[in-house]
Amino acid sequence: MSVAVRGGGRLRVASESRREMLVPSGVLGMSIFVFTEIMVFAGLISGFSIIRSGAMIWPPPDQPRLPFEETAVNTAALLLSGVLLFVARRTYQKDRTRAATPLLISILLGAFFVVFQGFEWVTLLGQGLTLTSSSLGSFFYLIIGMHALHAVVALGVLTNAWLHLRGGWLASSRLAVAEVFWYFVVGIWPILYMTVYF
Amino acid sequence: MQLHDTAKLAVLLVCGVLFAPELAQACAVCGAGQQEDTRLAFILTTAFLTFLPLSMMGGAVWWLRRRVRRFESSQLEMRPVDAAPLSRASSSR
To answer: How does DSSP classify residue A133?
Structure first.
């Protein structure tokens, strides 16, 4: 229902559906959550930068080097996943039935990123980089682990959206919620990669 | 008498702050910022953590404002023809 009324010298449009059309509740909630998570990562990055600047030699000489070349491939996969999610959104707006494929590829690339990170962690643990071995290890597992946790949860949200899409009842707002979360995971990764791995 | 003691305590405190700042190790910045690099990192991260939430809030307000404007303009376009005088009245102001 939409009613036009005059008030305060300006035209105001009173509408029952105004709130949901402006920003869906799910998107607003996820955006607030993402804002808080950005601050969490900002705090972690700040702490890491201060510890790093205070160290005489960085990375600590008795610790393994972080595999930034291999992780570059992983980073590319994650970024491509973000691009495919964008493609999925565009396709969804034109033809919903065709959006499932790019969304699925996006999820698979995200899953590849998480699994690859897991292999990387196993290798690093085998080389002696643990949570307590050095400040590098502490911050590495804390920051990258925090990101991996977000990536896993976001993949769950994306998979849920994909299942709804396959079932034919995916609402645009539900896809938008998944998008906000995944774009956060994708967008913050290059910053973490450049900060921690180099 | 009590005021006199308080004044003495205040003078003592000011002297302590002025002449023995190296003893103020209570905060992480005072204790850790011995090197120039660390001090710079503290300054940069403080600025980063101060301006990041402000810029995010500013961005959110800007985005919401843009959405409201877009919504209002789309509502005006969707208005039925019989309500045209109201639309004209609004645009003239």
So the answer is: T
Angle value at C-alpha B79, between B73 and B80, nearest 5 degrees: 160
Alpha helices in A95-196 (DSSP H): 100-126, 135-167, 172-192
Q: The pTM is what?
A: 0.77
A129, A137 in Cβ contact below 8 A? Answer: yes
Determine whether the interchain pair A13/B49 forms a contact, defined as Cβ–Cβ distance below 8 Å: no
Residues of A in contact with B38 (CB under 8 A): 50, 53-54
Alpha carbon B50 to its chain's center: 6
Model-level ipTM above the cut of 0.95: no
Q: What is the pLDDT of residues B20-57, one digit of tens each?
A: 766 655 565 556 656 788 888 888 999 999 999 999 99
Residue corresponding to tokens 């959206």: A161
- Residue B86 has its nearest CB partner, among A11, A38, A46, at A11
What pLDDT digit, counting tens, does each position of B56-90 carry?
A: 999 999 998 998 888 888 877 776 655 555 544 44
Q: Rounded distance, CA B29 to CA B39, Å?
A: 8
Cis ω before B85 (30° cut-off from 0):
no
